[in-house]
Backbone:
Protein backbone atom coordinates (compact mmCIF):
# COMPACT_ATOMS: atom_id res chain seq x y z
CA UNK A 1 0.00 0.00 0.00
CA UNK A 2 1.30 3.45 -0.94
CA UNK A 3 0.85 5.86 1.96
CA UNK A 4 -1.26 8.90 1.04
CA UNK A 5 -1.74 11.62 3.66
CA UNK A 6 -3.29 15.06 3.54
CA UNK A 7 -3.38 18.41 5.25
CA UNK A 8 -6.81 19.99 4.95
CA UNK A 9 -6.90 23.43 6.60
CA UNK A 10 -9.86 25.76 6.62
CA UNK A 11 -8.79 29.30 5.57
CA UNK A 12 -10.95 31.05 8.13
CA UNK A 13 -8.05 32.50 10.13
CA UNK A 14 -4.30 32.87 9.84
CA UNK A 15 -2.61 29.52 10.35
CA UNK A 16 -0.54 29.30 13.56
CA UNK A 17 1.98 26.78 14.91
CA UNK A 18 -0.74 24.62 16.46
CA UNK A 19 -2.41 24.32 13.06
CA UNK A 20 0.75 23.74 11.07
CA UNK A 21 1.73 20.78 13.27
CA UNK A 22 -1.25 19.03 11.65
CA UNK A 23 0.60 19.53 8.36
CA UNK A 24 4.04 18.58 9.66
CA UNK A 25 3.16 15.09 10.85
CA UNK A 26 1.27 13.87 7.74
CA UNK A 27 4.00 15.42 5.58
CA UNK A 28 6.70 13.67 7.61
CA UNK A 29 4.86 10.35 7.56
CA UNK A 30 4.39 10.49 3.79
CA UNK A 31 8.05 11.39 3.28
CA UNK A 32 9.31 8.73 5.71
CA UNK A 33 7.23 6.05 3.96
CA UNK A 34 7.93 7.11 0.38
CA UNK A 35 4.29 8.14 0.08
CA UNK A 36 2.28 11.09 -1.23
CA UNK A 37 1.33 14.26 0.66
CA UNK A 38 -1.74 16.17 -0.50
CA UNK A 39 -2.81 19.74 0.30
CA UNK A 40 -6.54 20.41 0.35
CA UNK A 41 -8.12 23.76 1.18
CA UNK A 42 -11.50 23.30 2.87
CA UNK A 43 -13.03 26.63 1.87
CA UNK A 44 -16.76 25.90 1.98
CA UNK A 45 -17.32 28.45 4.79
CA UNK A 46 -17.72 31.32 2.34
CA UNK A 47 -18.42 33.97 4.96
CA UNK A 48 -15.24 33.32 6.96
CA UNK A 49 -12.81 32.03 4.32
CA UNK A 50 -10.39 34.50 2.78
CA UNK A 51 -7.67 34.51 0.15
CA UNK A 52 -5.35 36.20 2.65
CA UNK A 53 -5.68 33.18 4.95
CA UNK A 54 -4.99 30.84 2.00
CA UNK A 55 -1.87 32.85 1.20
CA UNK A 56 -0.57 32.46 4.76
CA UNK A 57 -1.15 28.69 4.54
CA UNK A 58 0.79 28.46 1.26
CA UNK A 59 3.55 30.84 2.39
CA UNK A 60 3.94 29.15 5.77
CA UNK A 61 4.19 25.67 4.28
CA UNK A 62 6.62 26.82 1.59
CA UNK A 63 8.83 28.52 4.19
CA UNK A 64 8.88 25.40 6.40
CA UNK A 65 9.62 23.19 3.39
CA UNK A 66 6.40 21.17 3.77
CA UNK A 67 6.12 20.54 0.05
CA UNK A 68 2.97 18.86 -1.26
CA UNK A 69 2.87 16.33 -4.09
CA UNK A 70 -0.72 17.03 -5.12
CA UNK A 71 -2.92 20.09 -4.81
CA UNK A 72 -3.81 22.48 -3.53
CA UNK A 73 -7.32 21.22 -4.15
CA UNK A 74 -10.16 23.58 -3.23
CA UNK A 75 -13.46 22.16 -2.04
CA UNK A 76 -15.45 24.96 -3.64
CA UNK A 77 -14.13 23.76 -7.01
CA UNK A 78 -15.45 20.24 -6.33
CA UNK A 79 -19.12 21.06 -5.78
CA UNK A 80 -20.25 19.18 -8.89
CA UNK A 81 -18.56 16.03 -7.59
CA UNK A 82 -20.22 16.32 -4.17
CA UNK A 83 -23.64 16.79 -5.72
CA UNK A 84 -23.09 13.76 -7.94
CA UNK A 85 -22.32 11.61 -4.88
CA UNK A 86 -25.37 13.04 -3.08
CA UNK A 87 -27.59 11.97 -5.99
CA UNK A 88 -26.06 8.49 -5.91
CA UNK A 89 -26.69 8.24 -2.17
CA UNK A 90 -30.30 9.37 -2.64
CA UNK A 91 -30.79 6.71 -5.30
CA UNK A 92 -29.47 4.07 -2.87
CA UNK A 93 -31.61 5.29 0.04
CA UNK A 94 -28.56 6.30 2.07
CA UNK A 95 -29.90 9.81 2.64
CA UNK A 96 -33.36 11.27 3.07
CA UNK A 97 -34.97 14.73 3.03
CA UNK A 98 -35.77 16.28 6.40
CA UNK A 99 -38.25 19.16 6.62
CA UNK A 100 -37.86 19.91 10.32
CA UNK A 101 -37.42 23.67 10.69
CA UNK A 102 -34.68 25.26 12.74
CA UNK A 103 -37.30 26.46 15.23
CA UNK A 104 -38.70 22.93 15.60
CA UNK A 105 -35.21 21.51 16.00
CA UNK A 106 -34.38 24.07 18.70
CA UNK A 107 -37.62 23.25 20.52
CA UNK A 108 -36.80 19.54 20.33
CA UNK A 109 -33.37 20.14 21.84
CA UNK A 110 -34.80 22.26 24.64
CA UNK A 111 -37.24 19.49 25.57
CA UNK A 112 -34.46 16.91 25.53
CA UNK A 113 -32.20 19.03 27.71
CA UNK A 114 -35.07 19.69 30.13
CA UNK A 115 -35.48 15.91 30.38
CA UNK A 116 -31.71 15.54 30.89
CA UNK A 117 -31.42 13.73 27.57
CA UNK A 118 -28.62 14.16 25.04
CA UNK A 119 -29.73 16.76 22.44
CA UNK A 120 -30.06 14.98 19.10
CA UNK A 121 -32.27 14.79 16.05
CA UNK A 122 -35.07 12.30 16.78
CA UNK A 123 -35.54 10.83 13.28
CA UNK A 124 -38.94 12.43 12.64
CA UNK A 125 -38.39 12.38 8.87
CA UNK A 126 -36.38 9.16 8.68
CA UNK A 127 -38.26 6.67 6.47
CA UNK A 128 -38.79 3.26 8.06
CA UNK A 129 -40.94 0.30 6.94
CA UNK A 130 -44.53 0.88 8.06
CA UNK A 131 -43.77 4.38 9.38
CA UNK A 132 -46.12 7.24 8.48
CA UNK A 133 -44.12 10.41 7.78
CA UNK A 134 -45.59 13.85 8.52
CA UNK A 135 -47.10 15.75 5.59
CA UNK A 136 -44.49 17.67 3.60
CA UNK A 137 -44.84 21.40 4.41
CA UNK A 138 -45.38 23.71 1.47
CA UNK A 139 -42.56 25.98 0.30
CA UNK A 140 -39.92 24.40 2.54
CA UNK A 141 -36.62 23.23 1.10
CA UNK A 142 -35.40 20.18 3.06
CA UNK A 143 -31.95 19.36 4.30
CA UNK A 144 -30.53 15.95 3.41
CA UNK A 145 -29.65 13.69 6.32
CA UNK A 146 -27.39 10.65 6.22
CA UNK A 147 -29.12 7.47 7.36
CA UNK A 148 -26.77 6.47 10.15
CA UNK A 149 -26.89 2.80 11.26
CA UNK A 150 -29.42 2.57 14.08
CA UNK A 151 -27.68 -0.16 16.08
CA UNK A 152 -24.27 -1.72 16.61
CA UNK A 153 -21.05 0.15 17.26
CA UNK A 154 -18.55 2.08 15.19
CA UNK A 155 -14.98 1.51 16.28
CA UNK A 156 -11.45 2.28 15.20
CA UNK A 157 -7.93 1.81 16.50
CA UNK A 158 -6.60 5.35 16.76
CA UNK A 159 -2.81 5.59 16.39
CA UNK A 160 -2.72 8.10 19.24
CA UNK A 161 -5.73 7.41 21.44
CA UNK A 162 -5.97 3.65 21.06
CA UNK A 163 -9.23 1.75 20.64
CA UNK A 164 -12.33 3.95 20.46
CA UNK A 165 -15.87 2.53 20.29
CA UNK A 166 -19.08 4.52 19.91
CA UNK A 167 -22.61 3.12 19.96
CA UNK A 168 -24.52 4.05 16.82
CA UNK A 169 -27.48 4.80 19.06
CA UNK A 170 -25.47 7.81 20.30
CA UNK A 171 -25.24 9.24 16.79
CA UNK A 172 -28.14 11.00 15.13
CA UNK A 173 -28.67 11.33 11.39
CA UNK A 174 -26.20 13.97 10.27
CA UNK A 175 -27.17 16.79 7.90
CA UNK A 176 -24.98 16.38 4.83
CA UNK A 177 -26.65 18.90 2.50
CA UNK A 178 -28.21 22.25 3.35
CA UNK A 179 -31.58 23.46 2.01
CA UNK A 180 -29.84 25.14 -0.94
CA UNK A 181 -28.16 21.83 -1.82
CA UNK A 182 -24.64 22.76 -0.70
CA UNK A 183 -22.91 19.86 1.07
CA UNK A 184 -21.64 20.05 4.64
CA UNK A 185 -18.15 19.58 6.03
CA UNK A 186 -18.33 15.96 7.20
CA UNK A 187 -19.72 14.77 3.89
CA UNK A 188 -17.19 16.68 1.76
CA UNK A 189 -14.29 15.32 3.83
CA UNK A 190 -15.37 11.73 3.22
CA UNK A 191 -15.82 12.19 -0.53
CA UNK A 192 -12.46 13.95 -0.77
CA UNK A 193 -10.63 11.28 1.22
CA UNK A 194 -12.15 8.55 -0.96
CA UNK A 195 -11.44 10.31 -4.25
CA UNK A 196 -7.89 11.17 -3.20
CA UNK A 197 -7.14 7.69 -1.88
CA UNK A 198 -6.16 8.89 1.58
CA UNK A 199 -4.72 6.04 3.64
CA UNK A 200 -3.89 7.89 6.87
CA UNK A 201 -5.72 10.84 8.42
CA UNK A 202 -3.49 12.64 10.94
CA UNK A 203 -5.34 15.60 12.44
CA UNK A 204 -6.24 17.40 15.66
CA UNK A 205 -8.34 15.68 18.28
CA UNK A 206 -11.05 18.33 17.90
CA UNK A 207 -12.17 16.07 15.02
CA UNK A 208 -12.63 12.94 17.15
CA UNK A 209 -16.39 13.51 17.44
CA UNK A 210 -16.65 13.68 13.65
CA UNK A 211 -14.79 10.43 13.09
CA UNK A 212 -17.54 7.85 13.87
CA UNK A 213 -19.96 9.65 11.57
CA UNK A 214 -17.34 9.80 8.83
CA UNK A 215 -16.48 6.11 9.25
CA UNK A 216 -20.15 5.21 8.81
CA UNK A 217 -20.28 7.28 5.63
CA UNK A 218 -17.11 5.65 4.27
CA UNK A 219 -18.70 2.24 4.74
CA UNK A 220 -22.05 3.32 3.33
CA UNK A 221 -20.16 4.37 0.20
CA UNK A 222 -18.49 0.96 0.01
CA UNK A 223 -15.07 2.08 1.25
CA UNK A 224 -12.98 1.10 4.24
CA UNK A 225 -11.98 4.18 6.27
CA UNK A 226 -8.35 5.29 6.51
CA UNK A 227 -6.15 4.88 9.55
CA UNK A 228 -6.81 7.71 12.02
CA UNK A 229 -4.38 9.47 14.34
CA UNK A 230 -5.89 12.28 16.42
CA UNK A 231 -3.27 14.65 17.79
CA UNK A 232 -3.69 16.27 21.23
CA UNK A 233 -4.22 20.01 21.37
CA UNK A 234 -1.30 22.44 21.37
CA UNK A 235 -1.64 24.86 24.29
CA UNK A 236 -0.25 28.37 24.48
CA UNK A 237 2.08 29.55 27.22
CA UNK A 238 -0.90 30.27 29.51
CA UNK A 239 -2.20 26.72 29.15
CA UNK A 240 -5.09 27.71 26.85
CA UNK A 241 -5.84 26.16 23.49
CA UNK A 242 -3.60 27.85 20.94
CA UNK A 243 -5.73 30.07 18.74
CA UNK A 244 -5.70 33.45 17.08
CA UNK A 245 -8.23 34.60 19.68
CA UNK A 246 -5.74 33.68 22.41
CA UNK A 247 -2.89 35.57 20.79
CA UNK A 248 -1.28 32.93 18.55
CA UNK A 249 0.95 34.39 15.83
CA UNK A 250 0.60 33.47 12.16
CA UNK A 251 3.31 30.98 11.12
CA UNK A 252 4.80 33.54 8.75
CA UNK A 253 5.48 35.90 11.67
CA UNK A 254 8.12 33.49 12.99
CA UNK A 255 9.82 33.73 9.59
CA UNK A 256 9.67 37.53 9.81
CA UNK A 257 11.09 37.45 13.36
CA UNK A 258 14.23 35.65 12.19
CA UNK A 259 13.56 32.01 13.06
CA UNK A 260 15.03 29.26 10.87
CA UNK A 261 12.63 26.92 9.11
CA UNK A 262 14.58 23.81 10.15
CA UNK A 263 14.58 24.96 13.79
CA UNK A 264 10.81 25.52 13.78
CA UNK A 265 10.32 22.07 12.21
CA UNK A 266 12.59 20.59 14.90
CA UNK A 267 10.67 22.35 17.69
CA UNK A 268 7.23 21.54 16.27
CA UNK A 269 8.17 17.90 15.80
CA UNK A 270 8.83 17.63 19.55
CA UNK A 271 5.39 19.13 20.36
CA UNK A 272 3.67 15.77 20.37
CA UNK A 273 6.29 13.28 19.15
CA UNK A 274 9.63 12.11 20.47
CA UNK A 275 12.66 10.07 19.54
CA UNK A 276 14.17 9.09 22.86
CA UNK A 277 15.74 12.12 24.52
CA UNK A 278 16.84 13.77 21.29
CA UNK A 279 16.12 17.51 21.44
CA UNK A 280 18.06 18.89 18.48
CA UNK A 281 17.98 17.11 15.13
CA UNK A 282 18.08 17.86 11.44
CA UNK A 283 15.18 17.59 9.03
CA UNK A 284 16.81 14.48 7.55
CA UNK A 285 17.05 12.81 10.96
CA UNK A 286 13.42 13.68 11.69
CA UNK A 287 12.23 12.03 8.49
CA UNK A 288 14.40 9.01 9.16
CA UNK A 289 13.02 8.58 12.68
CA UNK A 290 9.38 9.66 12.35
CA UNK A 291 6.58 7.15 12.84
CA UNK A 292 3.06 7.13 14.25
CA UNK A 293 3.96 4.90 17.19
CA UNK A 294 5.68 7.63 19.18
CA UNK A 295 3.02 10.32 19.03
CA UNK A 296 2.22 11.67 22.48
CA UNK A 297 -1.22 11.33 24.08
CA UNK A 298 -1.16 14.46 26.23
CA UNK A 299 -1.47 18.10 25.20
CA UNK A 300 1.80 19.86 24.40
CA UNK A 301 2.49 23.41 25.57
CA UNK A 302 4.19 25.99 23.38
CA UNK A 303 7.17 27.72 24.97
CA UNK A 304 8.76 30.55 22.97
CA UNK A 305 11.88 30.55 25.16
CA UNK A 306 12.43 26.88 24.26
CA UNK A 307 11.82 27.65 20.57
CA UNK A 308 14.44 30.40 20.76
CA UNK A 309 16.90 27.98 22.35
CA UNK A 310 16.29 25.42 19.60
CA UNK A 311 16.72 28.17 17.00
CA UNK A 312 20.00 29.23 18.59
CA UNK A 313 21.32 25.66 18.38
CA UNK A 314 20.47 25.49 14.68
CA UNK A 315 22.08 28.89 14.08
CA UNK A 316 25.30 27.70 15.71
CA UNK A 317 25.34 24.50 13.65
CA UNK A 318 24.57 26.15 10.30
CA UNK A 319 27.52 26.58 7.91
CA UNK A 320 28.51 30.22 7.61
CA UNK A 321 28.04 30.17 3.84
CA UNK A 322 24.42 29.03 4.31
CA UNK A 323 23.69 31.50 7.08
CA UNK A 324 24.94 34.61 5.28
CA UNK A 325 22.18 34.60 2.60
CA UNK A 326 19.58 34.56 5.39
CA UNK A 327 21.16 37.56 7.11
CA UNK A 328 21.75 39.53 3.90
CA UNK A 329 18.09 40.58 3.36
CA UNK A 330 17.93 41.76 6.98
CA UNK A 331 20.89 44.05 6.29
CA UNK A 332 19.55 45.22 2.94
CA UNK A 333 16.28 46.21 4.63
CA UNK A 334 18.37 48.60 6.73
CA UNK A 335 20.14 50.03 3.69
CA UNK A 336 23.38 48.17 4.48
CA UNK A 337 25.42 46.84 1.57
CA UNK A 338 27.29 43.76 2.77
CA UNK A 339 30.35 42.31 1.04
CA UNK A 340 32.37 39.11 0.81
CA UNK A 341 33.17 39.34 4.54
CA UNK A 342 29.58 38.51 5.50
CA UNK A 343 29.94 34.70 5.92
CA UNK A 344 33.07 35.17 8.07
CA UNK A 345 31.39 37.81 10.23
CA UNK A 346 28.30 35.59 10.67
CA UNK A 347 30.59 32.79 11.80
CA UNK A 348 32.17 35.07 14.40
CA UNK A 349 28.87 36.15 15.89
CA UNK A 350 26.36 33.32 15.48
CA UNK A 351 27.15 31.66 18.83
CA UNK A 352 25.70 34.63 20.72
CA UNK A 353 22.44 35.00 18.74
CA UNK A 354 19.06 33.26 18.76
CA UNK A 355 17.54 34.68 15.54
CA UNK A 356 18.81 36.00 12.23
CA UNK A 357 17.52 39.44 13.27
CA UNK A 358 19.70 39.37 16.40
CA UNK A 359 22.59 38.26 14.20
CA UNK A 360 21.94 41.09 11.74
CA UNK A 361 22.00 43.55 14.66
CA UNK A 362 25.52 42.39 15.47
CA UNK A 363 26.71 42.17 11.88
CA UNK A 364 25.54 45.72 11.17
CA UNK A 365 28.20 47.00 13.57
CA UNK A 366 30.84 45.89 11.07
CA UNK A 367 29.32 47.99 8.27
CA UNK A 368 27.89 51.18 9.80
CA UNK A 369 29.27 53.76 12.25
CA UNK A 370 28.82 52.80 15.90
CA UNK A 371 28.51 54.89 19.00
CA UNK A 372 29.01 53.42 22.44
CA UNK A 373 26.85 54.74 25.26
CA UNK A 374 28.25 57.48 27.45
CA UNK A 375 28.21 54.98 30.30
CA UNK A 376 30.35 52.46 28.39
CA UNK A 377 32.82 55.16 27.30
CA UNK A 378 33.15 56.55 30.80
CA UNK A 379 33.69 53.07 32.25
CA UNK A 380 36.29 51.81 29.79
CA UNK A 381 37.94 54.80 28.05
CA UNK A 382 40.02 56.13 30.94
CA UNK A 383 43.02 58.45 30.74
CA UNK A 384 45.18 55.52 31.83
CA UNK A 385 44.34 53.42 28.75
CA UNK A 386 44.34 56.10 26.03
CA UNK A 387 48.15 55.98 25.46
CA UNK A 388 47.93 52.20 24.98
CA UNK A 389 45.14 52.64 22.40
CA UNK A 390 47.26 55.20 20.54
CA UNK A 391 50.22 52.80 20.58
CA UNK A 392 48.03 49.98 19.25
CA UNK A 393 46.64 52.18 16.48
CA UNK A 394 50.17 53.14 15.42
CA UNK A 395 51.22 49.48 15.24
CA UNK A 396 48.09 48.47 13.31
CA UNK A 397 48.90 50.99 10.58
CA UNK A 398 51.66 48.76 9.19
CA UNK A 399 51.08 45.24 10.56
CA UNK A 400 49.99 42.44 8.22
CA UNK A 401 46.17 42.43 8.34
CA UNK A 402 45.62 38.90 9.60
CA UNK A 403 44.61 37.46 12.92
CA UNK A 404 48.04 36.23 14.09
CA UNK A 405 49.80 39.53 13.43
CA UNK A 406 46.98 41.54 15.04
CA UNK A 407 47.12 39.27 18.10
CA UNK A 408 50.86 39.80 18.39
CA UNK A 409 50.37 43.59 18.21
CA UNK A 410 47.92 43.43 21.11
CA UNK A 411 50.38 41.39 23.17
CA UNK A 412 53.22 43.80 22.39
CA UNK A 413 51.18 46.74 23.67
CA UNK A 414 50.41 44.80 26.85
CA UNK A 415 54.09 44.06 27.39
CA UNK A 416 55.01 47.70 26.84
CA UNK A 417 52.31 49.14 29.10
CA UNK A 418 51.93 46.47 31.77
CA UNK A 419 48.18 46.33 31.19
CA UNK A 420 46.16 43.13 31.37
CA UNK A 421 44.27 42.01 28.25
CA UNK A 422 40.78 43.00 29.53
CA UNK A 423 42.08 46.51 30.36
CA UNK A 424 43.06 47.02 26.71
CA UNK A 425 40.59 44.79 24.88
CA UNK A 426 37.39 46.15 26.41
CA UNK A 427 37.99 49.81 25.51
CA UNK A 428 39.09 48.77 22.02
CA UNK A 429 35.86 46.80 21.62
CA UNK A 430 33.84 49.80 22.81
CA UNK A 431 35.49 52.00 20.19
CA UNK A 432 35.36 49.52 17.34
CA UNK A 433 31.96 47.82 17.85
CA UNK A 434 30.24 50.03 20.43
CA UNK A 435 30.12 47.33 23.12
CA UNK A 436 32.57 45.84 25.59
CA UNK A 437 31.40 42.27 24.91
CA UNK A 438 32.43 40.78 21.56
CA UNK A 439 34.04 37.62 20.21
CA UNK A 440 37.82 37.30 20.19
CA UNK A 441 39.24 40.78 19.58
CA UNK A 442 41.89 39.77 17.05
CA UNK A 443 39.24 37.99 14.96
CA UNK A 444 36.91 41.00 15.20
CA UNK A 445 39.60 43.42 14.04
CA UNK A 446 40.68 41.12 11.20
CA UNK A 447 37.08 41.03 9.92
CA UNK A 448 37.02 44.83 9.58
CA UNK A 449 38.87 47.00 7.07
CA UNK A 450 42.08 48.45 8.49
CA UNK A 451 41.05 52.03 7.74
CA UNK A 452 37.74 51.59 9.58
CA UNK A 453 39.49 50.19 12.66
CA UNK A 454 41.99 53.03 12.70
CA UNK A 455 39.28 55.63 12.24
CA UNK A 456 37.25 54.21 15.12
CA UNK A 457 40.29 53.95 17.40
CA UNK A 458 41.06 57.59 16.73
CA UNK A 459 37.83 58.49 18.57
CA UNK A 460 39.45 57.54 21.87
Residues:
Amino acid sequence: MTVRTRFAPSPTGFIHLGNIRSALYPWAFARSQGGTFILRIEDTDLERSSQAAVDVILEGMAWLGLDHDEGPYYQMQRMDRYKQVLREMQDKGLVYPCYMSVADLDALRERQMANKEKPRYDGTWRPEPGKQLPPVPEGVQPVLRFRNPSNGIVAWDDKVKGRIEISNEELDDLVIARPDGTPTYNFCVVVDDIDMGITHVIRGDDHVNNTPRQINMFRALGQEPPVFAHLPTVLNERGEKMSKRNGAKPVTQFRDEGFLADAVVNYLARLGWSHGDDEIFSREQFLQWFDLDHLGRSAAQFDEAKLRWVNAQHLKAMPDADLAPLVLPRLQARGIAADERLPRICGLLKDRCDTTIALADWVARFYVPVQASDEERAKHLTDGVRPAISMLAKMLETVAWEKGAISESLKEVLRATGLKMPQLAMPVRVLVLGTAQTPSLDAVLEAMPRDVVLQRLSAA
In short: The domain at 4-80+184-235 is CATH 3.40.50.620 (Rossmann fold). The two ends are 73 Å apart (CA to CA). The chain has 19 helices and twelve strands. The mean pLDDT is 95.
